[in-house]
Design a protein that fits this description.
Shape: globular
Number of strands: 7
Largest sheet: 7 strands, mixed
CATH superfamily: Vaccinia Virus protein VP39
Strand order of the largest sheet: 3-2-1-4-5-7-6
Order of helices and strands: HHHEHEHEHEHEHEE
CATH architecture: 3-Layer(aba) Sandwich
Bound molecules: calcium ion
Structural class: alpha/beta
Strand content: 15-25%
Radius of gyration: 17 Å
Number of domains: 1
CATH class: Alpha Beta
Distance between the termini: 31 Å
Helix content: 40-55%
CATH topology: Rossmann fold
């Protein structure tokens, strides 16, 4: 039996960053601007962003979706990975949070690639389906209210093309998903139900990465 996953202490984590992270100065500045935010923990880790940028490039993605923008680090990262004519449909309900990121999107000269829709994500995604955009997208990142994940996933399944990829954040939820279902809260219950559903979902190829807080990859068959 090999290691399940290598545990990262602070020294090794810093080594990983020192030897792999390649950020645009606007990404570094946006992380710095978010560091003191009361919800700073909602921001993805930079190595996770770099991983997502790699996925976007591997997919040759042009059209992407993000559900849950927060202060816009992952949107910035995906936009930087997209080709000049690429677009990111970015869904969030908070002007207060997303406006923090906008100057950095401009600094990186990718603001024109990010179509920020301030509305409940389901409204935005359903409107795009109604507008005939089923199968139009290549990549989606879901990182928002956990009770909404299942509905976001179902919409993204329809909006993405065959071979497109859905990445879902926080699916290991600090380990809470492994607790008994009667000993937990509604967010954990929602993630437990989704993880169980995804395991048996024949519409997708599946992989759960024990990375950051758990990242599930579902590729549309
Ligand atoms: Ca998250």
């Amino acid at each position: 039996m090999t290691f399940k996953t290598l545990a990262l202490d602070e020294t090794l984590y810093q080594y990983l960053l020192d030897h792999s992270l390649r950020e645009h100065p606007a990404q570094t500045a946006l992380r710095e601007a978010t560091r003191s935010h009361p919800y700073a923990g909602m921001q993805i880790a930079p190595e996770q962003g770099q991983f997502m940028a790699m996925l976007v490039k591997l997919l040759g993605a042009r059209n992407c979706i993000e559900v849950g923008v927060f202060t816009g680090y992952s949107a910035l990262t995906v936009a930087l990975a997209l080709p000049p004519d690429g677009r990111l449909l970015a869904c969030d309900i908070s002007d207060e949070f997303t406006r923090i990121g906008k100057p950095f999107w401009q600094q990186a000269q990718v603001a024109h690639k990010i179509d920020l829709q301030l509305a409940p994500a389901l409204h935005t995604l359903d409107a795009r389906l109604a507008a005939g955009e089923a199968g139009h997208y290549d990549f989606a990142f879901i990182d928002a209210d956990k009770s909404g994940y299942d509905a976001y996933y179902e919409r993204c399944l329809r909006l993405l093309r065959k071979g497109g990829l859905i990445a879902i954040d926080n699916t290991l939820w600090s380990g809470k998903v492994a607790r008994p279902a009667d000993d937990t809260d509604s967010d954990t219950l929602a993630l437990q139900a989704l993880n169980t559903k995804l395991h048996g979902d024949e519409r997708v190829d599946l992989c759960v990465l024990p990375f950051s807080d758990g990242v599930t990859l579902a590729r549309i068959r």
